[in-house]
């Protein structure tokens, strides 16, 4: 264990926080697309919604 | 000689996304083999009740195959990106010299707060269970339970940190968590929508397979992310002692 290496992370600057917040928003949008979207975001009608239907159920999200 | 470079956000993020994609595919595999049979059984009941199948927009075989894996891997990647972001922002406040402990701790907290807390209040339903008229309320209530699960984790950490002795920390943390969860469960609305004639065993089996899918997702995500970080550390890391000094500053 003495040879274990540890990362340090970048200093939490306002700039990093802004980037992190922006990216988190993007990822939440992606999760929303899978879990809740009914065509409003994907603009694919109900196609993506139906395509990912079983995943939604098995990921524990209310579906219908 | 360790290089004294700090990895930047994008390096950590890339590993989170990759770990999430991997975990999502594994969770998809679990769901495919252990969850789909229950989904199919529930759909058969739904169709029998409706008096025949209507032609779906997407073939059932696609929904239960490619569609399932697409859903779990995209969801996994999104959660992996969020985990990596949380790791980057919170790493220095996690009071541990070990990156593996930090990564697994965050993933474990997510499994508890984002999965278990919502699951026990709003256990997921297979097709044929749930009133379409209340989907909006149920979705909002589910999201509220996810947020409150995170609040409960936060409360646990704050409570634990008021104590110094180990078992007192554990007790305070547990108490903080349970108090928030109890209040949340009491305040959140309850839905009673399982049809009286829906097979109880099928409902139970479906719910356990859904919990299993999410447990596989977060476990694999935490372990893969920790593994990728440790490989990154051997390239760019510092000896543990140095990093421990840096990371214990409040
Ligand atoms: Zn459904």
UniProtKB/TrEMBL annotation, chain A:
<keyword id="KW-1133">Transmembrane helix</keyword>
<dbReference type="InterPro" id="IPR012667">
    <property type="entry name" value="CbtB_put"/>
</dbReference>
<feature type="transmembrane region" description="Helical">
    <location>
        <begin position="16"/>
        <end position="36"/>
    </location>
</feature>
<keyword id="KW-0812">Transmembrane</keyword>
<protein>
    <submittedName>
        <fullName>CbtB domain-containing protein</fullName>
    </submittedName>
</protein>
<dbReference type="Pfam" id="PF09489">
    <property type="entry name" value="CbtB"/>
</dbReference>
<keyword id="KW-0472">Membrane</keyword>
Automatic annotation (TrEMBL), chain B:
<feature type="transmembrane region" description="Helical">
    <location>
        <begin position="211"/>
        <end position="229"/>
    </location>
</feature>
<dbReference type="Pfam" id="PF09490">
    <property type="entry name" value="CbtA"/>
</dbReference>
<feature type="transmembrane region" description="Helical">
    <location>
        <begin position="102"/>
        <end position="120"/>
    </location>
</feature>
<feature type="transmembrane region" description="Helical">
    <location>
        <begin position="172"/>
        <end position="191"/>
    </location>
</feature>
<feature type="transmembrane region" description="Helical">
    <location>
        <begin position="66"/>
        <end position="90"/>
    </location>
</feature>
<protein>
    <submittedName>
        <fullName>CbtA family protein</fullName>
    </submittedName>
</protein>
<keyword id="KW-0472">Membrane</keyword>
<keyword id="KW-1133">Transmembrane helix</keyword>
<feature type="transmembrane region" description="Helical">
    <location>
        <begin position="12"/>
        <end position="34"/>
    </location>
</feature>
<feature type="transmembrane region" description="Helical">
    <location>
        <begin position="140"/>
        <end position="160"/>
    </location>
</feature>
<keyword id="KW-0812">Transmembrane</keyword>
<dbReference type="InterPro" id="IPR012666">
    <property type="entry name" value="CbtA_put"/>
</dbReference>
């Amino acid at each position: 264990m003495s040879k274990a290496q540890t990362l340090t992370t970048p200093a939490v600057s306002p700039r990093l926080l802004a980037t992190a917040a922006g990216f988190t928003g993007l990822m939440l949008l992606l999760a929303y697309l899978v879990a809740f979207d009914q065509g409003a975001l994907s603009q694919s009608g109900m196609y993506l919604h139906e395509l990912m239907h079983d995943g939604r159920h098995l990921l524990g999200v209310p579906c219908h | 000689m360790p290089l004294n470079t700090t990895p930047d956000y994008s390096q950590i993020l890339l590993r989170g996304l990759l770990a999430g994609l991997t975990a999502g595919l594994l969770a998809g595999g679990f769901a495919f083999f252990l969850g789909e049979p229950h989904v199919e059984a529930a759909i058969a009941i739904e169709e029998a009740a409706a008096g025949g199948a209507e032609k779906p927009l997407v073939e059932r075989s696609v929904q239960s195959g490619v569609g399932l894996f697409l859903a779990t891997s995209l969801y996994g990647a999104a959660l992996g990106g969020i985990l990596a972001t949380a790791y980057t922002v919170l790493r220095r406040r996690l009071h541990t010299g070990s990156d593996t402990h930090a990564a697994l701790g965050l993933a474990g907290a997510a499994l508890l707060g984002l999965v278990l807390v919502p699951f026990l209040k709003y256990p997921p339903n297979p097709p044929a269970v749930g009133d379409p008229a209340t989907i909006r309320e149920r979705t909002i209530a589910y999201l509220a339970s996810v947020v409150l699960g995170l609040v409960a984790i936060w409360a646990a950490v704050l409570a634990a940190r008021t104590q110094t002795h180990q078992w007192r920390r554990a007790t305070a943390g547990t108490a903080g968590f349970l108090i928030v969860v109890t209040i949340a469960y009491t305040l959140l609305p309850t839905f009673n929508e399982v049809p009286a004639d829906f097979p109880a065993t099928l409902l139970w089996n479906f719910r356990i397979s859904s919990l299993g899918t999410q447990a596989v997702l977060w476990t694999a995500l935490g372990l893969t992310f920790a593994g990728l970080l440790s490989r990154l550390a051997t390239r760019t890391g510092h000896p543990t002692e140095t990093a421990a000094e840096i990371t214990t500053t409040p």
